[in-house]
Amino acid sequence: MASMSHSFLILLLLPLLIAADKCNKDDKRALISIKSAFNNAYHFASWTSTSACCDWYGVECDPGVPGNSDGSRVTGLYVITDSNVTGPIPSAVGDLPFLTSLRFHKLPNLTGNIPSSITRLTRLSVLILSWNSLSGPIPSFLSQIPSLTIINLSFNQFSGSIPAELANLPSLLGLDFSRNRLTGPIPSEFGNFPKSSPPDLILNHNSLSGNLPVSLGVPEWRTIDLSRNSFTGDASFLFGAGKSTQVIDLSRNEFAFDLSRVTFPVNLTSLDLNHNKISGSIPAQINQVEPNFFSQFNVSYNQLCGQIPAGPITAKFGVDAYFHNKCLCGSPLPPCTRG
Ligand SMILES: *[C@@H]1O[C@H](CO)[C@@H](O)[C@H](O)[C@H]1NC(C)=O
Ligand SMILES: *[C@@H]1O[C@H](CO)[C@@H](O)[C@H](O)[C@H]1NC(C)=O
Ligand SMILES: *[C@@H]1O[C@H](CO)[C@@H](O)[C@H](O)[C@H]1NC(C)=O
Ligand SMILES: *[C@@H]1O[C@H](CO)[C@@H](O)[C@H](O)[C@H]1NC(C)=O
Ligand SMILES: *[C@@H]1O[C@H](CO)[C@@H](O)[C@H](O)[C@H]1NC(C)=O
User: Fold this and answer.
1) Which tens digits make up the pLDDT trace of 78-127?
2) Which ligand is nearest to the Cα of residue 246, counting in written order?
3) Which listed site, 17, 193, 269, 322, has its alpha carbon 20 to 30 Å from 221?
4) Domain 2-329 fold
């Protein structure tokens, strides 16, 4: 009896299961044009007209999304690690309206700009276009996709400046533009990100320059990485004992400010200031930072002076965290000479 009702249930559900397995025909058509825009590269060998597109390599569907009566909708597209995938991002990616995650990663022959058709992806949350050969500007039209939470454009050849409009995106968790050819300043509008939940801001290895807008002192960045650019002037307003900031990397820029005036966020885990023009002395308050998770500290190659304050944080690091300063002294550097 139990087994009979079981098989009855399966019979009843079978058409539903098949329907769920079938992919939406508009989505399938869009994927086929993506495949053909990439010259039917071997990567897309499983993308055949006789199979359900939800079973294709790198395609993810969600049978639960609304509008599935005509087959499951494509919610994820992943094209990863293949040098045979050549040419620009096909504009047909904009024809997958239920896409929440788009990832083109490690495609060394993926070239050209980000297509504007992407703005039609009104549910897109995760946009990862890292380690390709994409170029052109970071388009301001990305600000027209309010669902975006992660924008990762790292390791490409994007140039031009950072569009201020991105500060209008309400749900951002992370912006990673590292390892590109970006120029110009950080827009002052980036100070408008939510004070207690701004996105992680990763901008290392570009050619960004200018003074930081003072407005950047308002959001409590969890991670702010501006390393290896040409930023100048003050960055002291990024600090503050009451902030929830965990990672600050300002290394290899031309920042020039007085470190004596700074207080350190108590939950800081990593602070790298090496190779700048930072002056003053290391405040004793550094040793009030929670030591358990504090793992990286580097103030080398600056113009610091005075005694390194003794304590649980400063004792964790050796000479190379402090060397090449103007007149920094005391353990682990040679003792200060009274004069
Ligand atoms: C790339 O194309 C070459 C030549 O067609 C082929 O031998 C190779 O397996 C392809 N690589 C991948 C990752 O598909
Ligand atoms: C892809 O790029 C590599 C260099 O990364 C190059 O040697 C190769 O010829 C390119 N392949 C195609 C199919 O364009
Ligand atoms: C962006 O992608 C790179 C390369 O995969 C990765 O290392 C990095 O952590 C990503 N950044 C963010 C903010 O997730
Ligand atoms: C530091 O971390 C602790 C434990 O997670 C948390 O309770 C506290 O609010 C944090 N302090 C700040 C200033 O964010
Ligand atoms: C600090 O940075 C300098 C310069 O890049 C490097 O030589 C040194 O090893 C670093 N030390 C630590 C502890 O990170």
Assistant:
1) 999 999 999 999 999 999 999 999 999 999 999 999 999 999 999 999 99
2) 4
3) 322
4) 3.80.10
